[in-house]
Amino acid sequence: MKIGLGLYRHQLDRAHFDFARQCGATHLVVHLVDYFGQGDNPRDNQPTGGLAGWGRAGDPSRLWTVEELRSLKQEINAAGLELEAIENFDPAHWYDVLLDGPCKQQQLENLKTIVRRLGGVGIPVMGYNFSIAGVASRIKGPFARGNAVSVGMDGVDETPVPLGMVWNMVYDRDAPGGTLPEISHAELWRRLEDFLAALLPVAEEVDVKLAAHPDDPPVPRVRRQPRLVYQPDMYQRMIDLNPSPANTLEFCVGTLAEMIEGDVYETAERHSKAGRIAYVHLRNITGKAPRYRETFIDDGDVDIARVLSILLRNGFDGVVIPDHTPQMACQAPWHAGMAHALGFIQGVLRVM
Ligand SMILES: [Mn+2]
User: How many domains does the chain have?
Assistant: First the structure.
């Protein structure tokens, strides 16, 4: 098992790479989508999208280039780290794959190009979240130990998604008024099947794993749109859809623990044993959807040591990163939260 850190787009610089090394990380998972624009908001711990969403999606016709991927990897390597994964497609690159719109075939081709570029540069994992509403319904407050600001949920956001928005970001500012039609769960699964059928052969060919994040928060519908993986069994259903070895999981322990069915330890056991976990998001929570709170990693319902011991026993050799953490009361709330979580994870592993 390897220790990693997740970095957002605005953090892709030497200071953050050095910070990751200083915390003991050897690997990075990076986001290339700038979810929250250029404002001063703490970007890692936002409550919910609402009508404005997280910000604007990128340019549909401008894909991540080989040059930018290669130079990012080189800068990360120069800091003594490995680039393990890119997390999340830009909504601009696949809105019609999610929405089954007119540009779907073109966008599937573009996603294949992106996956080929990752393979060519030697980035082994592409994380994604097949979701129309994306992260929504979250609230924010001093919920964690010592009044640390964290996120949670107190009920489902029923605000319909406006046209021109998907996955909590605006991809078309000139979209007409109106909202996305409500679709069935079966229809969403059909769209996923098309996506996997198109992308997995390419991913396999270039030795890249596609790793699926479950729905956060995990409830049947958010903003009137169906969710795909909101109970643990749905992760298995996703694997069963397509047997390709590139069909893997971005295993989010916090999200799985929020689900009302199943058991996070059994789920970790099943998928680590089957070798289906590409990488792990590790965080803790109290409660269950639709009413839960994110906590410090050492302080919630999940026995983190038990999860890590299951992964170790089953020979999981991928990367574990802290997920979001509560913001600590200091000048660098994100850094402090990550340093605390990384220290805790390594301490637990040291005594196993
Ligand atoms: Mn997660």
Answer: 1
